[in-house]
Specification:
The N and C termini lie far apart (66 Å). The chain is elongated and about 65 Å long. 50% of the residues lie in helices and 6% in strands. It folds into 2 domains: 34 residues; 67 residues, no CATH class. The chain is mainly alpha-helical. It contains 3 helices and 2 strands, in the order H-H-H-E-E.
Length: 102
């Protein structure tokens, strides 16, 4: 009986650790999963400036994977705050635009 208790308690401990990990992941991504309206706003901005999908992918998964974004020479006068939701973005190039402030 002791062997069963030890085995079952270790299974419970592992299950609890797994649940904690899953909860952390869900907390991290739940906001973006529940409210993805920012993506629609970002796409509207990109469409307004006729930014092609080769620069800003219209596929959500590809958009969220972006680590660099080159927006040079696009005659932009502002950058939308939604750009801050691109969590993997490490490089943003904005040269030769009409952006007054960020």
């Amino acid at each position: 009986m002791d062997i069963i208790k030890k085995d079952s308690s270790s299974v419970v401990l592992r299950a609890n650790k797994l649940l904690k990990t899953i909860n952390k992941i869900l907390k991290h991504y739940s906001t973006d999963l529940v409210d993805s309206s920012w993506i629609d706003n970002f796409y509207k901005w990109a469409d307004k400036y006729e930014i092609p999908d080769t620069i800003i992918p219209r596929d959500k998964a590809k958009l969220l994977e972006l680590d660099e974004l080159n927006l040079t020479n696009l005659n932009l006068d502002y950058i939308p705050p939604e750009i801050g939701k691109l969590k993997n973005l490490k490089g943003l190039y904005l040269g030769n635009n009409k952006i007054g402030e960020l």
